[in-house]
Amino acid sequence: MRAPYGLNILDNCLTCPNRQDHIFCNLSLQAGQRLNEIKSTAVYPKGAMLFIEGQQPRGVFVLCSGKVKLSTTSREGKTIITKISDPGDILGLNAVISNHPYEVTSEMMEPGQANFIPRDSLLQLLREFPEAALRVAQQLSRNYYTAYEEIRTLGLATSPSEKFAKLLLSWSTKATQNDGSSQLRLTLTHEEIGEIIGTTRETVSRLFSEFRKKQLVQIKGATLVIRSRPALEKIVQS
Amino acid sequence: MRAPYGLNILDNCLTCPNRQDHIFCNLSLQAGQRLNEIKSTAVYPKGAMLFIEGQQPRGVFVLCSGKVKLSTTSREGKTIITKISDPGDILGLNAVISNHPYEVTSEMMEPGQANFIPRDSLLQLLREFPEAALRVAQQLSRNYYTAYEEIRTLGLATSPSEKFAKLLLSWSTKATQNDGSSQLRLTLTHEEIGEIIGTTRETVSRLFSEFRKKQLVQIKGATLVIRSRPALEKIVQS
DNA sequence: CCCCAAGGGTGATCCAGATCACACAGCCTC
DNA sequence: GAGGCTGTGTGATCTGGATCACCCTTGGGG
């Protein structure tokens, strides 16, 4: 099946190749079947907003492919990115469960597919299948943990360089090579990195220079090589 | 029933006067009875640690009376207080559900009672009673919301005065009088307030002076009067 | 009664980053 | 190829709080 933006659509959760890896996709046969019925799938272009901070929750989106940027913005226009979501994540879950407005805005960073599940159908599913409710609780508590990581980073790490080092480390753990160094594609702008660690574009730029000079990282085009985890760890706890 | 520290012990959840108000205490008769069997109650002195950041989760504590300070500390010894918990809150829930170590330290700020529920018993209860699982999900998502508030405060509000104003506003909403002003008992030290908003003792001291001078607040002994919410709101979004 | 610890007030200094200001590179469209 | 737009690099300046230093009050215990 061919879709817009050159993506393959994954139409059936039960036969989805990623099923095993994703906490909520990997339900029992019964529940999975039910999930399949109540979801509706769609493909979104880069820049699409799945939902916007402050909206009343219509339902959740299970991300099948692509990356999503979750952010929150103050009235004065200052923005922080709280998370970059990967496939398998359930977006908007907290808002739906607690029936508060969405607390973040979610924007596609690249073309991707997501399954929408309306609020009522989801709640019905949860009442029917305790296993699903437990999964949801697990996902919520996982979300909570990342939120806490964020709090620790924002509240405890004082200097931008500390936070920056921390961020690089978290990236590097996701993609470490056998020789200890790690290599990854840099898809965020300096501005966006600034919004993650709570500093300005210029400071991020200067941090990159500084870290390059210190041989901590290396940049060729859009590829970032992290050369020395230990040195970064020393910066974090300094 | 008389207990240490001059507290009345609430021994039976089903007859507890606070039952209605507390999300997890107010279960159906069956589930409540079961809850009553698996819990063990205890009274703690001021300063007691219910659990400490990094410990493997043994179970949850349902706070019956007293106030609890939740905090996290960096290796260098910098501390932030992430929440002051009131009766009815379930402490350690996320750790228990996700089986990660406790992400915060919880310390009694005054003598109080808490019910302990061992991890296994709780999980068993959740499997047996879907309603309980849903309550837990709700509580988790509520926790998540307050965590997000914290993130917004730490990440978006740049200046200490903004954060301070925000904190005062949140206190004031909890205790607003009919005439618009609000009055509350100040139980935190300047140091602790600093740990909430991420600044130093001295700065908090100066902020109090400044706000007193501007007629925003008034202090007599341990009583804090918030005189003008609108003015505070203006500081927050300035 | 004195002492000491904990909490609070306030001045002086200093510096890391925010802010402002350019300059430049890549890439699109017309 | 000119213009415009987005993202980046890097100097110069300015400033809000952290930090240090000291003194004051309060209250409890020996």
Layout of SSEs?
Two copies of one chain form a homodimer.
Chain A (H helix, E strand, L loop, with lengths): L28 H10 L1 E5 L4 E3 L7 E5 L4 E6 L5 E7 L4 E2 L1 H6 L6 E4 L3 E7 H10 L1 H27 L3 H15 L7 E4 L4 H8 L3 H13 L3 E4 L2 E4 L2 H8 L2
Antiparallel strand pairs in A: 1-8, 2-7, 3-6, 3-8, 4-5, 4-7, 9-11, 10-11
Chain B binds a DNA duplex (30 and 30 nucleotides) through α7.
What is the gist of this entry?
Two copies of one chain form a homodimer. With 238 residues, chain A is α+β, with helices and mostly antiparallel strands.
Biggest interface, chains and residues, is: A-B, 41 and 41 residues
Measured as a percent range, the helix fraction of chain A is 40-55%
Protein structure class of chain A: alpha+beta
What profile does the largest beta sheet of chain A have?
Answer: 4 strands, antiparallel
Shape of chain A: globular
Instruction: Provide a count of the helices of chain A.
Output: 8
What would the average pLDDT of chain A be, to the nearest integer?
88
CATH superfamily of the largest domain in chain A: Jelly Rolls
CATH first level of the largest domain in chain A: which class?
Mainly Beta
Measured on Cα atoms, how large is the radius of gyration of chain A? 19 Å
Predict the CATH topology of the largest domain in chain A.
Answer: Jelly Rolls
- Report the sheet-strand fraction of chain A: 15-25%
Oligomerization status of the protein chains: homodimer
Our measurement of the CA-to-CA distance between the termini of chain A, rounded to an integer number of angstroms, reads: 52 Å
Number of strands of chain A: 11
Integer count of domains of chain A: 2
